[in-house]
């Protein structure tokens, strides 16, 4: 379990670094586009496309990082009224449903990526499969982090590592 925790922590650090780099590049490219448009009364075709695609990658990688840190929005006022055992059961069922959803995203994300390998984007001239790969990659990372949570909090809990009912 410690190895899985270490691997997931290392992957999350890499994800966060990629997110930071993408956000900085988006900021620079969007600033460049604004200057071109309003100062020089011109524009280019790749800047908007780059910002859009970088944003898609940021969202999907960020969703994985947020899942690992329990930072997704939760509506849990009804669940909090249940006894601890009921809360734990609902949490486990929730994560099992998340696994099913993520497996579906991976399956269909790979399928759409394979179908778009020969399509080229208009502005950046890159294969569209690169953009569609963000879906299965983001879902696979979320699946890894979900499996880590299930193992740590529900299947292999220890006294020091009780189920995560009250996360930040």
UniProtKB/TrEMBL annotation:
It holds the Pfam family DctQ. GO terms for cellular component: plasma membrane. GO terms for biological process: C4-dicarboxylate transport. It is a multi-pass membrane protein. The chain crosses the membrane at residues 14-35, 50-68, 89-110, 130-151. Keywords: Cell inner membrane, Cell membrane, Membrane, Transmembrane, Transmembrane helix, Transport. One of its GO terms (molecular function) is transmembrane transporter activity. Residues 26-153 form the Tripartite ATP-independent periplasmic transporters DctQ component domain. Part of the tripartite ATP-independent periplasmic (TRAP) transport system. PANTHER family: 2,3-DIKETO-L-GULONATE TRAP TRANSPORTER SMALL PERMEASE PROTEIN YIAM (PTHR35011), TRAP TRANSPORTER SMALL PERMEASE PROTEIN (PTHR35011:SF11). The complex comprises the extracytoplasmic solute receptor protein and the two transmembrane proteins. This is TRAP transporter small permease protein.
